[in-house]
Design brief:
By secondary structure, the protein is mainly alpha-helical. It is built from 5 helices and no strands. The chain has one domain: Tyrosine recombinase, N-terminal domain (DNA polymerase, domain 1).
Length: 132
């Protein structure tokens, strides 16, 4: 089966069975089409990416490139990985895959949260408390 067809089936499932919002569906579609294009650009065959191209090595390389490029925010990378994981789980449940090729050891980048700054009022209270 071609990957594009599998993605379409998954998106229909997400809309009908899981009741996902249009924004979520749009994000999933964008993420999964991006992956399919990435895979197609790396395949030597002249065919569209197929299910047999969904290998652990290909997924590891894809996630590695997402992390290395640094053109995407960590949240975008995590969402793209989550979208791909959801697709693979769906294909496994549907019998289109015999095993989930997503490597267990592969993780999304950790969120780097900046510390929250103090408000003007909080700074004033601190200064007042320090002077007493």
């Amino acid at each position: 089966m071609e990957l594009d067809r599998a993605i379409d089936r998954f998106l229909v499932h997400c809309r009908v069975e899981r009741g996902m919002s249009e924004n979520t569906l749009s994000a999933y579609a964008s993420d999964l089409r991006f992956f399919a294009q990435w895979l197609e650009a790396r395949e030597v065959s002249d065919r569209l990416p197929r299910m047999e191209h969904l290998t652990s090595d290909a997924i590891t390389a894809y996630v590695g490139e997402l992390n290395a490029e640094r053109r995407f925010a960590p949240g975008t990378v995590r969402r793209r990985i989550a979208s791909l994981r959801s697709l693979l789980k769906f294909l496994l449940r549907e019998g289109a895959l015999k095993a989930n090729p997503f490597p267990r050891r592969l993780r999304a980048p950790a969120a780097t949260l900046l510390p929250k700054s103090l408000s003007v009022e909080e700074v004033e209270r601190l200064l007042e408390a320090a002077s007493n």
